[in-house]
Structure formats: structure tokens, C-alpha cells
Amino acid sequence: MWLSLAFLSAALLGLYDVAKKRSLTGNAVLPVLLLNTLFSSLIFLPTILSAEFGLGWFDATPLASAPGTAQAHLLVLVKSSIVLVSWIFGYFGMKHLPITIVGPINATRPVLVLLGALLVFGERLNAWQWTGVLLALASLVLLSRSGRREGVDFRHNIWILCLAVAAITGAASGLYDKYIMSRLDAAFVQSWYNLYQLGMMTVVAALLWWPRRQESPFHWSWAIPLISIFLSAADFAYFCALREEGALIAVVSMIRRGSVVVSFLCGALLFHERNLRSKAVDLALILVGMFFLWLGSR
To answer: Contact at 8 Å (CB) between 258 and 290?
Structure first.
């Protein structure tokens, strides 16, 4: 069951990346991210109200939750901080780079999660799963060559550096998820971490964007609420996957990066990006890697 949830989360993440790219095109980054946290919080606000006031709206459903302890809220607050850092850097990278480059780079993020899972949780991968990981690493090397054809030098591009920071903090978040999801229910984590992010993002936008809003203007796009819808659904499927017995965080994280399939196709069809043939080789390696991971996890 956890594998099915991981693949569902991957498909939804691909749609999330597309909505994010559309929203950020010619737009200020911080207010887009602020609205994302706002809409995500509103989606799960009924879950918080039901739990805190004992209303029982979601009893016997995956959204059922209970009031958390101070320690539980502290755990979620830490997660919110890590994810927000990853998002800020990732959003800036997404705005300034082709989605057909961003997608494959993000698809290699679980390699960092794998290293952490081996060191922290003692997880062990079999030969099929290791093959999938090595293919993902090979795709990153090839992608750096494809990027140079578009003037994107991986060694000296600040937006690539932003993606790298987003990847490292995102991997830290993935490892932390494995820790807290063994202690807290999915509905509690997702509903409160969205709310905490909204509070922190309001402060960030007020300090860094609002005084400079004339230089970095914001315009409304209907793709902005779609970011929250797709992300909330993808995260909920992900959290539920981690709650399943036997779920491996390294495998779940790698499968979720299969979202690159959706983002890559939309990059070609909607954004008309270039050098698709060479990038398709990178994508093919990632897909084969996904297959080996699935094969080794049956």
C-alpha cells in the first residue's frame, strides 16, 4: 500500500511543479509562496477545528486527528522551519531555470535522503534498489551537460546553488519526516505545519518583499491556488505512506521524484523549452531507476 501512495504522491507533485512554474513566471516569488501557505492552511483548517473542539467531523477517515501536546507542536514547528527554507530557495530556482532542468535535479534529491537513511535509520537497500540510485546519479551528470547548452553552468549559476540548498534542506526534511511520522498522525502534522508556515512566511514577506514590492511586483494567477491543492494532496499521500508498516523513507522519496515525468512533459508542451532530446535521456535514466526501485521493493 505504501508504494501505491508514493506513486500517487509523485503524480500530484508533478502537477504541483507545473502550477508553481506557471505562477512564478514573471512574478514575485515571496508573495506567491505566502499565498501557497495561506491556501494550504485553509484546506486543512477544518481538520484543526474538528480536533481542537471535539467536533468529530472526520472521525473514521484519514483526516481524523486529535489535539497535540506541546512536544508534538514543537516537532511540527521544526519541520515547518526546515521545509520553508527549502521552499524559498527552491521557488527562486524554479523561477529562473527551465522546468526541464529543475525537475530532473529534484529527482536526484532522494540520493541525499538515502545517505541519511543509511546513517541515521540503519535502512539497507538491496541490489535492485542500489541500481536505481546509481542510475539517478548518472542522470545528474548528464543533466549538467545538457544544461550547458542553455547557458546554465552548474558550477557558477546562483540559481543552481539555490536548488542545491533546497535539495539539502529537503532531504533533511525527508529524514525528519520518518522520525516524526512514527510518533504523530498525518492529519495533525500536515494541518499544523501549514499553519506554522503561514505565520513564518507572513513575517518573511513583510520584511523582505513588502518594502520592495515596486521593484518586484506581484500579479494574481489562478495557478497559485492550484499549487496548494496539488501539494496538499501529494503531501497527505506521502505522510500516509510513511505511516505504513515497512515503508522505507529512501524508496518513498525516490519514487516521489518520479514527478519529473509530469513536469518534463508539461515543460515541453506548455512552456516550449529547448534541448528536450538530450534531457529525455536523463529522464529515461530516472524512469529506469524508478522501475528498479519498485522491483526491489515488491
So the answer is: yes
Other Cβ atoms within 10 Å of 245 Cβ, number: 6
Our count of domains for the chain comes to 1
* Selection from 2, 57, 12, 21 nearest residue 229 by Cα: 12
DSSP 51-73: HHTT--TTTTSTT---PPPHHHH
Cα-Cα-Cα-Cα torsion 37, 38, 40, 43, nearest 10 degrees, comes to: 170
Dihedrals φ, ψ of 63, to 5°?
-90, 0
| Eight-class DSSP state of 205 | I
Crossing angle for the helix pair 99-107 and 260-269, nearest 10 degrees? 170
Write down the pLDDT at residue 226: 93
CA distance 178 to 116: 11
Whether residue 28 contacts residue 213, with contact meaning beta carbons closer than 8 Å, is answered with yes
Instruction: Assign 123 to helix, strand or coil.
Output: coil
Are 106 and 143 within 8 A, CB to CB? no
Average pLDDT, consecutive stretches of 10 residues, N- to C-terminus, the chain (298 residues):
84 87 90 94 89 80 80 93 93 84 70 69 73 74 61 72 87 83 83 92 94 91 91 82 74 73 71 66 74 68
Q: Residue 1 has what pLDDT?
A: 76
In a 10 Å sphere around its CB, with 0-12 CB exposed, 13-18 middle and 19+ buried, how is residue 144 labelled? middle
Residues near 290 by beta carbon (within 8 Å), at least 6 away in sequence = 132, 254, 255, 258
Full residue range of the structural domain in which residue 48 is found:
2-297
Q: Are 58 and 131 in contact (CB under 8 A)?
A: no
**Residues in Cβ contact with 4 at an 8 Å cutoff, skipping those fewer than 6 apart:** none
Nearest to 235 by CA among 8, 9, 56, 3: 9
Q: pTM of the predicted model, to two decimals?
A: 0.80
